Amino acid sequence: KVPIKGIERELICPACKELFTHPLILPCQHNVCHKCVKEILFAFEDSLADGGSESSNQSSPRIKITSSSMDRIDRISRAGKKRNSLTPRSTLFPCPGCQRDIDLGERGINGLFRNFTLETIVERYRQAARAAIAIMCDFCKPPPQESTKSCMDCSASYCNECFKIHHPWGTVKAQHEYVGPTTNFRPKILMCPEHEMERVNMYCEICRRPVCHLCKLGGCHANHRVTTMSTAYKTLKEKLSKDIDYLISKESQVKAHITQLNVLLKETECNSERAKEAASQSFEKLSHVLEDKKAAALRAIEASKNLRLEKLQTQAEEYQGLLENSGLVGYAQEVLKETDPSCFVQTAKQLHFRIQKATESLKSFRPAAETTFEDFVVDIAKQEEILGDLTFQSNGLEIPEINEEQSRMYNKALISWESPGKTDSADIYVLEYHKLNREEETATWQEIEVCSKSKVLSDLDDDSSYAFRVRGYKGSICSPWSREVVLRTPPAPVFSFLFDDKCGYNSEHLLLNPKRTSVESRAGFPLLLGSERMQVGCYTTLDYIIGDTGIAKGKHFWAFRVEAYSYLVKVGVVSGNKIQKLFHNTHDVTSPRYEQDSGHDSGSEDAFFDSSQPFTLVTLGMKKFFIPTTPAGPKDPASRILPLPLCLGICLDCDKGKVGFYDAGRMKCLYECEVDCSGIMYPAFALMGGAAVHLEEAVTAKYGEYHDDI
Q1: 428-435 and 413-418: which strand pairing?
Q2: Are the beta carbons of 407 and 485 closer than 8 angstroms?
Q3: Within 177-326, where are the H helices?
Q4: 493-531+539-586+612-630+637-709, which class in CATH?
Q5: Which of 635, 636, 574 minimizes the C-alpha distance to 609?
Q6: DSSP designation for 321
Q7: Are 433 and 467 in contact (CB under 8 A)?
Q8: Between 246 and 384, where is the model more confident?
């Protein structure tokens, strides 16, 4: 048997740091107390409601949401959005064990299983720790007697007399199951949290949790691979027993490793002291240099001060002599008393020169020395930056490089980097970023520690440029900073929507994926049949599809990708009160675009859209972006045709009545025009021939992926 005291570490809740109380099993297979789960969820939801303010996390003395969890709180409410369709609500839970956001599903905490096995082990540990403390009978009159058994069906403890009274022979209660005195009562049958009247009798190998037959028939486990509970029990028990036997058989090897680790602990202590001594000496040398520089600077300032004081003191004494009956004036007054002309002239000539010089100094007074010491200001900006980067550096640690292709700026910023050697040479990375502001001379870098090679940042300002850099750490050794990469955020908050599969959707010509994030137009048999009915003219019907969410006010941005093989795609916005007119036009035999075609290349007639069409769209196709013709725009057709960006964006400003079309990779505006926003505006797309449009996915924190062991 394993000593019960040796496993105390496994019985501590990662949230409250105390022994488990009614532990629940999370989807990531970590255990958390039932009370802790509720407190964390309440604190998390309060933080969401308050926009992530730290003051909202202090309601519970047991639980405190970490700053890393606070960084993952999104601002989910946006003014001016209206959702046509309802989506299932899921509950996110920041697991204190793995520091990840775990999706608890629609049922939230009610969909979690209690870990009765762990609860029983904790109870055995508590009994071993309090062997001298007896469990008292729940039914004795005061004073209660010590209990001798506990009934698992009644969930109560009894002494011998009370047990006989409450479980008389010949009754149903006499058949109850009883055990030794305990405070841990567990049900005989494990019931399904999704279907409370059904017992679990199967094991889902994908989700790694017990399920009932209703979960398999029509629930969320319908398409999952399941096995019988007995098979799962046998398989898992055999695996666990085999692994435990292997570890026990390697006891001598484990002891050897422990001995080696103890030696390494002592070596680490000694080596750390040596490293401290070497670091102290290095800093002492640096301190001596600074002390010498400080002393020299103070001596220079003191010498300059004495010289200036001497000059000012001499000047003050000279002006003191200009007062009546003192100094030069007093002496001149005495000379004026001389009556002998020859003696007077002999003395007065030199005196008059001094008097004239004093008179001139009065007319243009100027201190003999400056009082400021601006020439003695020490500029330490560069030295501060160097000292800020002062750390243990090693040439063997590779400099990471930020991957601009994998990094994205959308609703959040996803910054990815990699090592040139494609090896994980660093244990941890430090990502720094700051907003580029022309008004600020010096930038204040914000620092984040990251254990992986990517980081999702939120709460960045819209329509702003940010600089990013990263460095790796391996223990106390760090690499130099990577090259700075500048990325720009979208011009407005990101607007989320899906393709609407109801309003005007033509399922014969358009194909939506199950998530409604991609739409594809196929130039198939229906287009040939429509063209066959026409003897003259051109059959160029556009198939329209809109977003399922409308915009009533504010400024919003969304992005999408158009496949390179697409022949003709139009993108833009449409007013809600003109949607029916828009879809009615698409069923005409002859395209409205053909009726006003001027005979020039694709896109030349787009100048008439503002006045004659119930929408504002631009034309894309054949890897090109066509700028519509406007009176103020370029007249040369070649200058209106741009290469099609990999990702396009649209910015709608309902307050100013403008819509802009962007290269979403660089956040550069390609074309902007006015639009009537009197009604609710919807994203609009039109496809013809072979074409496909994919909505840009929002940047979210990556959930943990859990793999099956069976």
Answers
A1: unpaired
A2: yes
A3: 213-218, 229-249, 251-320
A4: mainly beta
A5: 574
A6: T
A7: yes
A8: 246
Grouping H, G, I as helix, E, B as strand and the rest as coil, residue 36 is helix
pLDDT (mean) for 409-433 = 84
Tokens of 121: 């082990």
| 277-314 confidence digits (pLDDT tens) | 888 898 899 899 889 989 998 999 999 999 989 988 88
Q: What are the structural domain ranges in the chain?
A: 1-46+89-132, 231-362, 401-488, 493-531+539-586+612-630+637-709
Pairing label, strands 477-478, 392-393 = parallel
> Could you please report the per-residue DSSP string of 387-404?
HHT-SEE-TTSPPPEE-T
pLDDT at 519 over 90: yes
Task: Report which of 578, 665, 679 is spatially closest to residue 625, judged by C-alpha positions.
Answer: 665
Tokens 């000496």 sit at which residue?
281
User: Of 199, 202, 130, 139, nearest to 173 (Cα)?
Assistant: 139
Q: What are phi and psi of 361, to 5 degrees?
A: -65, -30
Q: Which CATH superfamily is domain 401-488 in?
A: Immunoglobulins (2.60.40.10)
Band the pLDDT of 704: cuts 50, 70, 90.
very low
Predicted TM-score of the model (pTM): 0.49
Closest CA to 48 of 100, 92, 99: 92
Nearest Cα neighbor of 689 from 605, 561, 594, 563 is 563
How far is 635 from 641, CA to CA, in rounded Å? Answer: 11
For residues 447 and 682, what is the distance between their CA atoms, to the nearest angstrom?
A: 39
CA distance 501 to 163: 66
| Cα 584 versus chain centre, distance | 44
Q: Residues 26-51: what's their mean pLDDT?
A: 77
Into which CATH architecture does domain 1-46+89-132 fall?
2-Layer Sandwich (3.30)
pLDDT, tens digit, for every residue of 53-83? 444 444 444 444 444 444 443 333 333 333 3
Which tokens belong to 184? Answer: 């841990």
DSSP result, 539-589: --PPEEEEBSEEE-SSEEEEEEEE-TT-SEEEEEEEEGGGHHHHHHHTTSS
192, 211 Cβ separation under 8 angstroms:
yes
